[in-house]
Amino acid sequence: MATVRPLDPRLLREAKAARGYVILTAALGLVTAGLVVAQALLLAHVLAPLITGAAKLADVTGKLLALGIIFTVRAAVVGLQERFAHRAATRTITQLRAALLKHATALGPRWLAAGRASQIATLATRGLEALEPYFVRYLPQLLLAATVTPLTLVIVWWQDWTSGLTILITLPLVPIFMILVGKLTESASKRKIESMSRLGSQVLDLIAGLPTLKALGRERGPGARVRQLGESHRRATMGTLRIAFLSGMVLELLTTLSVALVAVGIGMRLVYGWMDLVVGLAVLILAPEVFFPIRQVGTQFHASSDGVAAAEEVFAVLETPLPDEPTAKKTAAGSFSADSDLAPAPDLAPAPDLATAPITVDEISIRAGERGHLAPAHLSFTLYPGEVLALRGANGGGKTTASLAVLNLLRPHAGEIHVNGTPLQKIDPAGWWRQIAWVPQRAMLLPGTLYENVTLGLEGGIDADELGTAARTTGFSKVLAELPHGWDTRIGHGGVGLSLGQRQRLALTRALIRPAPLVILDEPTAHLDAGSEQVVLDAISALKASGRSVLLIAHRAQLLDLADEVVTVHAAAPDDAGNLAAAAIGGARAAADSGANDEA
Amino acid sequence: MMRLKQWRSDPLVRAIGLLQVRLSRVVLAIFAGVGAIGSAIALAAVSAWLIARASQMPPVLHLTVAVVAVRTFGITRGVLRYSERLASHDVALRGMAHLREQLYLRLAQSRSDRVVQLRRGDVLQRVGADVDAVGDVVVRAIIPVGVAAVLGLGSAGLMFYFLPAAGLSLLACLILAAVLGPVLTLRAVRRAEIGGAQARGDIAAHTLTSLQAAAELRVTGGEQQLANALAREEAALTSAQDAAARPAGWSEFVLQAAMGLAVVCAVIFGGLALAAGNLEPVELAVIALTPLAAFEPIQALPEAAQQWYRSRSAAQRIMTLISDEELAPESGGGVQSGARRRPQSALIAAHDLTIGWDRAHPATKDLSFEVDAGQAVAVVGPSGAGKTALLLTLSGMLPPLAGTVRVAGTDPLTWADGLQRQEMIALNLEDAHIFHTTVLENLRVARGDATAAEARAALANVGLGPWLESLPAGLDTMLGPDATDVSGGERRRLLIARALLSRARVLLIDEPAEHLDSDTADDLVRDLLALAHRADSEGPGRAVILVTHRHAPLDAADRVIEIRAAQPVAAS
C-alpha cells in the first residue's frame, strides 16, 4: 500500500484520455490559485480600511463587487471540475479495460484457465471502476496541492516572510509524520486487519451455510456464535481503526496548529505596530488555503487507493509477456494500444481443405500445471476425412487439451500436428478455424436472439429448411415450439433462460449448420440425461452421413460405439520433453485479428 | 400522519431500527464532531478578533485570552476529530453486529422452504456488503447531519449576537447550501443509477463472456458482435454518468457560491452597521471572516445524501430477506410426541403429492409411495422433473402443492425445532455448504458428538481415505471459505460423509455421483443404497432415498421411482 505512486506514469502512457484531463485539471489548479490569492488580498483590502476607520462602505464597493465576481468564478471552476472530471475517468477506464481484455485473450486459453478468466473480468469491471474516485476526487486535489499550495505560500512569504517560514517548516512535517505513524503502526495494523477479516468472513460463512444447517436440523445453536463473532469483529475493527485514524489526526493537528501559530504571530506583530492590518488579514485568510489541498489529498487517499491498486494489477497483466511468438514479444514491450502492426506472418500457408486432407497427430505431449506432468503424453492418431474418431481416457488425461492443440489454440511442447504434411503452426489460423465447428463442454452463448446465436460466425445466410432439419435432429425444435417468439426469443447473458440441456442442443444445432468439414465435440452428453443422450447420437450420425469428420471426446459407451476409431489419451510423469516454454499461439493472432478494429 | 407512516415503513428507517444504536452513543459522537469542526470555526472567529484587536495596539495582556484560545483550538480540532471518528465507527459497528445477529436469528426461525430457496451469493451480499452499507449511514449521514445542524445554528447564532442581520444572512446562505447541495447530489446519484446500473451489469457480463469464451469466439466467430455490444454499453454508461455530472457540478457550485454570498453579505451589513455605530470595528472582522470556516460542516451533506441513497437500496435488499415471512411454528408439543411414537405404517408415506416451486408450473403430479425402514429407493427421471424438489418436500423444506407427506406418522412441515428434524431426516443437497473450519467440524455439522474415529470411518466409506491421508493436518485441516481447495468430486463425497454421520432415520441424498468418473460413481451409489440394509444396534436400519442420473447401479435399490415432468408416476 505504501508503494502506491500518487500519479503512475504508466497510467498516462496507457490511457491517452488521462493526459488531456491532467493538463486541464492542472490549468484549472493554476486558475484556482490565482483566484484564491486575489480573493484573500481583496477581502483584506476591503476589511482593513473599514476596521481602521480609514474608509466607509461606499469607498470599497468597487472592490466588494470584484470580490463577489471572484467568489462566483471560483465556484464555477469547482463546478466545472466536478462536471467534467468523470469523463476522463470513464474514458480511462474504458481504454484500460480494452487493453486488458485484448492482452488477456492474447495470453491464451491456458493462461485464462483455472478461474483466472473471472478474476480478470472482476479486475476489468469492478476493479477498474474504483479508478473513478481516483480521477474525480484524488487527482484534482493532488494537482491543487502542486499548484495552489506553492503559489499561495509564495504570496504569504511575499506578504510576511515570518508566517511563510512557519508554514514552510510545517509543510514537510505533514508527510513525514504521516509516513512515520504509518511505519510505526504497520505491523500492528496488518495483524489486526487479518484477524478482522477472518472474523468477518466467519460470520458470513455461518450465515451462508444456514440452508445446510436447516437441512440437517442444526440451525439453532450457532445464533450465539454469530453474536460472539460479531462482538469480536467489532473489537478487532476498532483496534485497527484506532491505529488507522492516527495519521489523519496528525494531519489535522499539524495543519490547524500551524494556522493557529501563524495567527498568533501576526497578532503579536500587529500589537507592536510591526505590521500592517491589510497584510495581517491577507495572511490570515491565505494560511488555511495553503493547507487545504494537502488535507484533501490526505482524506481522499484511501478512497482512491483501491483504484490505483487495480490499475497496478492491470499493468502487471499488461506487462506479462505473450508466449513465444516473435511478433507478439515485440508488442508486449511497446504500447499495448497500438499493436495493429501484428499482421499474420507472411510465411503462413493457406489452410488445406479438410474435406480431403487428413490430420496427423504425431507423438504430442503438453505440459499441464506447475508440476509439469504431461497430459496428453505421446499422443498419436490420424483423423481421416469423413471419419469419427473418439478420444477417451480418465479425467485429467488431457483429452480437452489435445482438442485445443488440434484447434491450434495450444502448441504442443513436444511432437507435432501435420495436415497433409504441412505443420499446423505454419497454417493460416483464420482459414483453419473457418473449417471447424467446435462444441466445447460449456458452449458459449451471447446475449441476443436465439437466431443470432445459432448463426454465430456464419458467413452469409442460412437456409430455413436446413436450420429446421438441424433443430429437429438435436431436439432443439421442441424447445422452440414452447417459445412464443421462436428463433426471435432473446436470451440473457450466458444463456440465461435456457437450461443446460437446452443450451447443449442449441450448441449442437450451431455445429450442424456450420458448413465445416471437421466437427469437434467435447463431452457432448455431459449435461444431458439418458433420454436426451439419443439426441447426440442422432447428431453424430447426421454429421457422419453428410461426410464430415468428427473428433469426439467421450466417456459413455453408446457414444464410443459410434466411433470408427477410439484412441485412449494418457497422462504421464514429466520426461525429457525438454524445457520448451508454454506456448499458446492462437492468442497472439486473435490480437492481430481484432487489432484493425481498434483503429476505428 | 401519512408522512410519518411512510417514514416508518421506509426500509432504511426500519433497518436503522434493527441496528439498535443507543442514542447516547450517537449524541456523544455528534458532540465530538461538533467540537472538532467547531474548533475550526472558533479558530477562524477568535483569530479574526485577535488580529483586528491587535491592530488597535492595546496592552498585550488584553490579548492573552485570545492567544491561548487560538492555540487551544489549533490542538482540539485534530484530537476531537479523532475521537469523533472512533465514536461514530464504534456506534456503527455495534449496530452492524446486532443487525447481522438479527438476520441470522430471523432466518433460522423462518420457514425452511424460504431459507432453502435463498441463493448463496444473495445471502452473502446482503449479510456482508449490504449490512455494512446500512452501518455506514450512521457514520457518513446521521452524525454529519447532526453536526452540521448544531454548528450551522451555532455559528449563525454567534453572528446574530454581534449583528442580527449578519446572523440571519449567514443562516439563509447555510440553509441554501444545506438544501440545494444534497438535493442536486441526490438527483445526480439517481441519474447515474438509472442508466448506469444496467449498463454496468451488462459490461460485467460481456467482459466475463469475452474472457471465458475467448478461444471459442476466435474459432467460431462473434468477437466483433461482442465488441460492438460492449461499446454500446460503455456509451450508455458514459451518457448516464454525463447526465449525472450536471447536477453534481451545480451542487459544488452552490456550496462555493453560497459561502461567497455569505461573506459579501456580512461585509455589506457590517459596513452599514459600522457607519450607524451599531457594530465595533473589531467585530466586523469576526462576522466577515467566520463564514469562510462556517461552511465546512455543510460540505459533508452532499456525501451524506449520497450515502443515504446507497444505504437505502441496501436496506431494501436486507428487508426483503427477513420481512413479511411466515415464521416456523414455534412449538408443537403434541406433534413432538407424535414423532417419537413408533410408526404404525411406513416410515415415509407420500400420498397424491404434487410438488414444485411454483403452483402454476408443478414439477410433478400425483405421486404416491411408501418407504419402510431398511429400504433403499432410487429416484430417477429427466432433468427438471422435480427430483430435488421431491427430496425437499419429503423433508419438510418445501410445502407440497397438493397431497400429504408423513414421516413416522407426522407432517414434517410441522416439526417445531431443529432437534426433531435432526433425529428424523438428514437431507443432503448437491450444493450444501462446506464451512470455513476443520474437516472434523465440517463433518460434525451433521452430528455434534461424532468422534474422530467415526469421522475417519465415514470418510473411508465414501472413498476419501487416501485424500484424508494426503491432508497436512488430517482431520484438523482447515477447509477454505468456499472449499476452493477441495475439488468438485471431493467436495461431493465430503458432503455424503457428513450425511453418513447423521443418526437420522431417513437419509435423503441428491445426485451423489456428479463429478466422479464412471466406476467410482457406480460404486458410490451402490454403497449408499446398501446403507439401508445395514441394520445397526438401534433398529431395523434406515430408509435411504437417493436421486441419481446413473442407471447402472440401480440393481442395488429395492425400488426405483421414476418421475416424469408433471405426469402421473409409475412405480416399479
Give an overview of the whole structure:
The complex is a heterodimer of chains A (600) and B (572). Chain A is built from 20 helices and 13 strands. Chain A is 63% helix and 8% strand. The longest helix of chain A has 50 residues, at 222-271. Chain A has helices at residues 9-14, 16-52, 61-106, 108-112, 116-129, 131-159, 161-208, 210-215, 222-271, 277-318, 326-333, 399-406, 429-434, 450-454, 464-474, 476-481, 500-513, 530-545, 557-562, 586-599, and strands at 359-365, 367-368, 373-374, 379-383, 388-392, 414-419, 422-423, 436-439, 448-449, 490-491, 518-522, 549-553, 565-568. Chain B has 572 residues and is an alpha/beta fold. Chain B has helices spanning 2-9, 11-19, 23-54, 64-109, 112-117, 120-162, 164-212, 214-220, 223-276, 281-294, 301-322, 333-340, 387-394, 418-424, 439-444, 452-461, 465-470, 488-501, 518-530, and strands at residues 348-355, 364-371, 376-380, 402-407, 425-428, 506-510, 543-547, 559-562, 570-571. A 6-stranded mixed beta sheet of chain B has the order 5-6-7-3-8-9, sandwiched between helices. Chain B has a 3-stranded antiparallel beta sheet with strand order 2-1-4. Chain B starts with a helix and ends with a strand. The chains are: A alpha/beta (600), B alpha/beta (572). Chains A and B meet through helix 2, helix 3, helix 4, helix 5 and helix 7 of A and helix 3, helix 4, helix 5, helix 6 and helix 7 of B.
